[in-house]
Design a protein that fits this description.
Blueprint (H helix, E strand, L loop, with lengths): L6 H49 L4 H12 L10 E2 L5 E12 L9 H8 L5 E7 L6 E3 L1 H9 L4 E8 L2 H7 L3 E6 L8 E6 L3 E3 L2 E3 L4 E5 L2 E5 L4 H25 L2 H8 L3
Parallel strand pairs: 2-3, 3-5, 4-5, 5-6
Antiparallel strand pairs: 1-6, 2-7, 2-10, 8-9, 10-11
Amino acid sequence: MNPFVDPRRSASRVFLILSLAIFLVTGATLMSKRLRAEATQDTSKKDDAALIESFRHVEAASVADALEQILGKKLYMTHRMRPIFRSKFAGFALTVHLKKEENEDPAALNGMLSAIDEGPRNSVYVMQVDEGADIAGMGGLMGTAMSARNFSGAVIDGGVRDVAYLEKIGFPVFATGIVPSTSVHHYRFAGANIPIQCDGVTVRPGDIVVADADGVAVVPREAAEKVLALAQQLDFKEHSMYPIIEKARSIMEGVKQLGRL
């Protein structure tokens, strides 16, 4: 043994080297996992954006038909749900529920505003306003915030106001009526990103909402790809039938050739 080498110092150096090696390997592993997670998340966001873009190019009627054929359910809203101006959109449901309650609480509706400020791009603000036929669930201020955050649109099971301004900024809203009233002091926020009932249809956060001149359909997220594929087929058949019907001057001939009605 070298009398000039302290065994304790040598062991300490070995320990430090081993510790540094373990630290570097652990750090590299964690960084690798983080990069993979970020890549997966980025891919998921791109896939979601592509899915919504595809739904923007199919008709709500074809989506409603596809839902009924695939799921055996009528997942479309009634004739009462109408656009404040002609519009077409699709997006992921961000749900909000307001319950009827007379109050003097200035914070009673803060939750519905926070939901907007936290909502991601391509959201559709879907609101259940209990007994809200004559109550405006939203207006120009909320619509401006949604537009600034790149929401796709809003669907209100209740009233809407400030429609001239909403049309001016081009923010699409479907509602059961147009009224000048307010929900302030008459309603309380009852939850966001929870399952709600909107004009008779169950809407869950993340479901896909498709709206156009024919109305509003709601696609459960887990069935989105199948519903989209069938809706695209139905659209193609219907659009292909128009010239056949015009040429033959017979709808029976169109249905005979392509089978869409």
